[in-house]
Amino acid sequence: MKNVVLNFGDPKELEAKRIAEIKSLSYLERLERLMALIEVSYTLKTAKIIKAKKR
């Protein structure tokens, strides 16, 4: 895995870099990223429900 580098700069430049990065990915890599986002979203959603039920 690559080292994480914080990006500071103009939002338009950062967005262009992000779009270029995503376009360079294969279909499978894009799908893997989407599934990871869905998994994190679901985990956060269910964590809030569990936390609320414990009170």
Number of helices: 2
Estimate the mean pLDDT confidence.
Answer: 83
**Which percent range fits the helix content?**
over 70%
The count of β-strands is: 0
Report, as a whole number of angstroms, the end-to-end distance.
39 Å
Biggest sheet features:
none
Regions with pLDDT < 50 over 5+ consecutive residues?
none
Beta fraction:
under 5%
Shape: extended
**Integer count of domains:** 1
Q: Helices and strands: which structural class?
A: mainly alpha
Pattern of helices and strands: HH
Radius of gyration: 16 Å
Folded structure, characterized:
With 55 residues, the chain is mainly α. It has one domain (11-54). Helix content is 76%, strand content 0%. The chain contains two helices and no strands. The chain has helices at residues 11-24, 27-54. The protein is extended and about 45 Å long. The relative contact order is 0.07.
